[in-house]
């Protein structure tokens, strides 16, 4: 179980010599890492395992969380489970492909201090075989919806005069290419460019915009790929640390970007890829 207190205790230390006159360890108090409770209101968009897991972590850190996705029954069950555990959680049925509906929902229930958007779609195949309807569907969720969702949350913050942290879950494929991934890579490279530009526009308003770029993560959604022995061998060869990612590998990055520990971080991508993009 994640705990800010446990994390801080593990890293706190008294000043100690570093081996030359006048030098000492800089980590002399828990203030060094600057990890307070998370801001009060966070919206998690996407009905996947990663979104739900981080919602639980954020709630345990003291945040009020809103979980938004299409599956109303599933959302309600997750929110109720968190409420039963004593956390502040609510469900917000939302289809991110409905831009007007998304903007209205964000305006009604916000402003949100933090956005964590993990909504995404993948349809892999040779570029020569990409159908226009597949192109529109993947681009519509991965880039178009992310663009207008991020903008909607930013508008609420700007109207309220509040700072914030806007996080989109991108991919290592936003920085490299891959076989049968031309369409997916196009959306994720676009998301990275969008992030940098929005970060520049809103920086003076105290709004930070970043992405988290995981490698292949072991989730129910990714099981089909990882269960293929040939694909699994290719993946593990590309990941320098020699293993696929676990959901827990992504959580630390999300907590970091959501908290004041990353107060000077904007317009960048945090790669959780085991070294995939190092070569």
From TrEMBL:
Record-level Gene Ontology MF annotations: oxidoreductase activity, acting on the CH-OH group of donors, NAD or NADP as acceptor
Annotated Pfam families: adh_short_C2
Gene3D superfamilies with a match to the protein in the record: NAD(P)-binding Rossmann-like Domain (3.40.50.720)
PANTHER family in UniProt: SHORT-CHAIN DEHYDROGENASES/REDUCTASES FAMILY MEMBER (PTHR42760)
Protein family membership: Belongs to the short-chain dehydrogenases/reductases (SDR) family.
Protein name: Uncharacterized protein
Organism: marine sediment metagenome
């Amino acid at each position: 179980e994640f705990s800010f207190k446990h994390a801080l205790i593990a890293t706190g230390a008294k000043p100690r010599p570093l081996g030359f006159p006048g030098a000492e360890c800089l980590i002399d108090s828990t203030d060094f890492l600057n990890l307070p409770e998370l801001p009060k209101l966070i919206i998690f968009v996407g009905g996947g395992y990663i979104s739900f897991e981080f919602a639980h972590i954020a709630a345990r850190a003291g945040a009020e969380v809103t979980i938004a996705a299409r599956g109303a029954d599933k959302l309600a069950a997750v929110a109720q489970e968190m409420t039963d555990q004593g956390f502040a959680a609510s469900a917000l049925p939302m289809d991110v492909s409905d831009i007007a509906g998304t903007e209205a929902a964000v305006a009604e229930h916000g402003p949100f201090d933090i956005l964590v958007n993990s909504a995404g779609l993948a349809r892999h195949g040779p570029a020569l075989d990409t159908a226009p309807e597949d192109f529109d569907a993947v681009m519509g969720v991965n880039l178009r919806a992310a663009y207008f969702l991020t903008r909607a949350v930013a508008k609420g913050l700007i109207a309220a005069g509040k700072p914030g942290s806007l996080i989109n879950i991108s991919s290592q494929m936003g920085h490299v290419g891959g076989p049968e991934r031309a369409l997916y890579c196009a959306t994720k490279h676009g998301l990275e460019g969008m992030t940098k530009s929005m970060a520049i526009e809103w920086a003076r308003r105290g709004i930070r915009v970043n992405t988290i770029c995981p490698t292949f993560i072991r989730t129910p959604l990714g099981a089909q790929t990882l269960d293929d022995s040939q694909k699994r061998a290719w993946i593990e060869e590309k990941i320098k640390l020699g293993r696929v990612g676990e959901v827990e590998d992504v959580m630390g990055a999300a907590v970091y970007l959501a908290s004041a520990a990353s107060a000077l971080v904007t317009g960048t991508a945090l790669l959780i890829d085991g070294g995939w993009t190092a070569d």
